[in-house]
Design brief:
Layout (H helix, E strand, L loop, with lengths): L2 H25 L2 H17 L7 H16 L29 H9 L3 H11 L5 H8 L3 H18 L7 H6 L15
């Protein structure tokens, strides 16, 4: 077995479920998550400098997931894109913290807006770190975060999201020391 194949096998054995769960957080859809992970693995192991260890591969696949997630097409892109700052028509603000209504609100976001929101709040990254990790301009990250937070606040004001925190908070280093099983 070739070295890259051993590294891929070791990576998937050690981190496969966590990477798939991360892809699902980025996409919000199990089917899309599987496709996104396959694309990220192909990008990581298909060309260029190959990771030498499973931990290096995990970080490379994570970054490839981020890169691919912000570039996904919105389903039904043949229609005119919705105004990202308009409240979702199907969602009314609620006072509860019902997880299903939060999932519904997340489902109204564009793929890029959802992905940067996950990177900001799930990964704790600041705008420059998101931009570096996903290979985007900082302005594009700021625009997507602003749209995501505005839509989420319109649907779920109780979440306590703040636009200032989304745009100014987080850590600047996108490479963190791996502790445990997080992607």
């Amino acid at each position: 077995m070739r070295t890259w194949a051993r590294t891929l096998d070791a990576t998937m054995r050690a981190y496969g479920p966590d990477l798939l769960a991360y892809a699902e957080r980025l996409t919000g859809d199990p089917d899309s998550a599987g496709t996104l992970l396959e694309d990220a693995l192909a990008r990581t192991f298909g060309s260029g400098r190959l990771p030498e260890t499973r931990d290096d591969a995990r970080l490379a696949v994570r970054d490839a997931l981020r890169h691919a997630a912000v570039r996904r097409e919105t389903p039904g892109t043949d229609r005119e894109p919705p105004d990202p700052f308009a409240p979702p028509a199907a969602l009314r603000p609620t006072d509860g913290t019902d997880a299903s209504s939060t999932r519904e609100a997340l489902a109204t976001l564009t793929p890029r807006a959802r992905a940067v929101l996950v990177m900001r709040y799930s990964d704790g990254l600041a705008v420059p770190a998101i931009a570096a990790s996903a290979d985007l301009h900082e302005a594009a990250v700021r625009d997507a975060l602003a749209a995501a937070v505005t839509r989420m606040l319109a649907a779920q004001p109780h979440l306590g999201l703040r636009l200032e925190d989304a745009l100014e908070g987080g850590v600047l280093d996108s490479t963190m020391v791996a502790v445990g099983e997080a992607p």
